[in-house]
Amino acid sequence: QVQLVESGGGLVQPGGSLRLSCTASGSIFSNYVMGWYRQAPGKQRELVARITSGGNALYADSVQGRFTISRDNAKTTVYLQMNSLKPEDTAVYYCYFRKSLLDPTFVWGQGTQVTVSS
User: What is the rounded distance in angstroms from the CA atom of residue 64 to the CA atom of residue 83?
Assistant: First the structure.
């Protein structure tokens, strides 16, 4: 069983930056995939970014060029550097873990609130 702990959310002004962290523990597979979804009030949950075992990163169009996902395999930790934040980035960000890109099961973190407001 895998457990996720995520942190790094908070309140920032438009144009500011935050870095989210997500650490996995437990029975971790070598080809694991990790990333973040986010859910804003009144909106569906959407994929923000993810990174594969090969280091391949994928971003939502809405965050492309502003967010960067990276990983530390030794710590089974992923980071989401969020720059040039906009009010529409406000959401609860949920880290996830998959054994591979084709694995049908997701393991979810507890969520961390990101609020972008003046």
Answer: 11
Between CA 15 and CA 117 the distance in angstroms is 10
pLDDT band at residue 29 under the 50/70/90 scheme:
confident
Instruction: Identify the residue whose tokens are 């009030």.
Output: 41
Written in H, E and C, the secondary structure of 23-37 is EEEECCCCCCEEEEE
Under a CB-based contact definition with an 8 Å cutoff, are residues 52 and 99 in contact?
no
Evaluate the CA torsion angle 14, 78, 45, 92 in order and state its sign: negative
The DSSP result for 27-86, as a single string, is S--TT-EEEEEEE-TTS--EEEEEE-TT--EEE-TTTTTTEEEEEEGGGTEEEEEE-S--
pLDDT digit string (tens) for 43-54? 999 999 999 988
DSSP 8: -
Q: Which amino acid is at 27?
A: S
